[in-house]
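Page 37, top half.
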Amino acid sequence: MSTVTTGTGSPKRRLGDLVFANLTRAAGLTILIALAGVGIFLTVEGIPAFGAGPDDLKGHSNLLTYVAPLVFGTLLAAVIALLIAVPLALGVALSISHYAPRRIAAGVGYLVDLLAAVPSVVYGLWGIAVLGPKLVPVYKWLASHFDWIPFFAGPASNTGRTIFTASIVLALMVLPIVTAITREIFAQTPRLNEEAALALGATRWEMIRLAVLPYGRSGIVSAAMLGLGRALGETMAVAMVLSASGVVTWNLISATNPSTIAANIALTFADATGTARNALIASGLVLFLITFVVNFSARAIVSRYEPGSK
């Protein structure tokens, strides 16, 4: 009971309830203040960059032409990572929730969750030392046989440090988030819906296609958008793996690659001074807004389908 009744009949809240309610309000207010503080800082420090010249913008004439290639590289790497991670995450989630025996499913679930605890630096080292060199023969084969496709036009990178390699690393980092959310959504599918599909003669896959996937559609979308937000903001792994030159290109396997906003800031902020530093902060503001919009959209989708929502 959260209230007690006094002799006059009016409810009186317990002291513990009042303390807990005020603490939770303070915690929520602290998050809002911190978020607003970050936005104000980025805005104030980024405004001087609008008057920056080519010397401070790496040869670009204005801030827009400076940030646009970084936005392109950020979105390209994140979208490719999502295209790789989401189907794999759905397969793993369905295997855990509907196919694998309970003991095996629990173990696989723990292993997938542990992927989220691996530092991004470790992913970056793995991408440089293992994944990149292993993909060099694949990139050369793609450049030799599919050079008519803009994505594989070549020439292939000799180190494997390409935007595609960085996207694969990002996909592995996004995988635990998407898997964890979709796994819980699939596990909450009404049992009666599944049994009704099976009783009508549906196979296991038909039951999943007709009962599980439609039920979890909103959860899949929200998980993918949350994973997209994670991929957009990743810094160290991309900075370590990607051999970036800041260009706009659809070629995924060459040594000339677009950079991302986060990686560009991480690699150049320490040496930047004056207006050049303001330009980096302004690009950070752009990334902040993109990430905020993605996460806000994901939260809106989740809230729309919460129990009791209309």
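Page 37, bottom half:
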Amino acid sequence: MTTREINGYQLQRVREHVWEIRQEGEMRVPARLLASESLLDQIGDDNTLDQITNATQLPGITTHALCMPDGHQGYGFPVGGVGAIDAENGCISPGAVGFDINCGVRLIRTTLTYDDLRGREEELVNALFANIPTGIGHGGVVETDVETVTEVLDRGLDWAVDEGYATRDDMLHCEDEGRRPDADSAFVSEDAKNRGKNQIGSLGSGNHFLEVQRVSEIFEDDVADAYGLQSDQIVVMIHCGSRGLGHQVCKDYVNRISEEHAEFNADLPDDNLAAAPAGSQVAEAYYGAMGAAINFAWVNRQLLTYQTRQVFDRVFGRSWEDMGMELLYDVAHNIAKKEIHAVDGEDRELYVHRKGATRAFPAGREEVPRAYREVGQPVLLPGSMGTGSYVLRGGDGSLSESFGSTAHGAGRIMSRTQAKREYGASDVQNDLRDHQQIYIKAEDGETIAEEAPGVYKDIDDVVAVSKDLDLADPVARTVPVCNIKG
């Protein structure tokens, strides 16, 4: 089929898995959706098409606004959205980054196998749940003061190394080595800092999790070797972000930008897209504040890594170093970065907004950590707590197709309200334990219902689109063993 009509939009099939809403009216560029036909039907079930079309009206946006195959409705800008905007004559939009700045995923390797863990799943999930802070507004691994938060905002993982929560090797295997050079805590409000001081090292709630996984399949042996992965290996995936601090930063700047640049934003179709003109004082302030919140999120995930290592020490009676609990990679979602990309044959500096999207740079790109530069950046795609997740590597087609981006997970197909109507927490928990030997523990039973496997798209379909378009290539698949949530 070469044309689809969904919710009043005409989508033209450009080629396999690439659909375009042509530029018309106030649109500055076309909108593109990267999806199979079945995923396209799911994307069309909410307001995602409205939002990606609205995003094409952001000043300075280049080429096309993009929706990844896991896309779904967000606030203003869709989750799974990518917008590359001229960094000199365009704008930067907090809403196109998202409220949970640097919500991201990291994967920790171990030398343990599934046989080492089998029969101890319940002991491990209970120990993790007892030692990993979860839930809304609860404390973190460390509870500190505004002065320390300020240092975290400016220094990122450098602070964690100095305080004994991270190693230099952890830094070398983190996006940007765990520190944004342009972060500036001076642009973060006291309200935001106060929200962060008791949340450093905490999962939060919603779709955030810490999951112990087993590597079930290897697809590319040489890349898996470079990543330190092998079949039946136990790994740990952590998914969370900048907590209340990041939310406050976004809120502060959406409000400030709306007030200071009302005329600039007057023609945008959604207040949540509020954008600051590139080069303006508030644009520079937001970029510094966002970088600081990014640092906070990296430290947040690092402290959860530290705590996880201590739990494994106690449960297995061996040091975490002896169990090879090293960071494979940490990748950010919900971020805007100045990057150089080719547009119409010329290299240009762009604010690449990725909201619920993952950077997926191929081999050779200098931003890829040296350990992986010859094979490509690791890409971590969590599925659901009942299906599985993927490790991929950045594909050669990502730069030309999606500004070096791909999906960030499975993507929701059901609202949280609907999920609670359709699923019972104990039913989900018992079914996963009894039929799949997956052990789940959560702060609130409603979270289990909201995050039931059936509320998500098929992760295999999402990965297939990414592979077919050469955005990212599957390296390994993992399946859950135990999972804790807020």
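Margin note: The first helix runs from residue 37 to 43.
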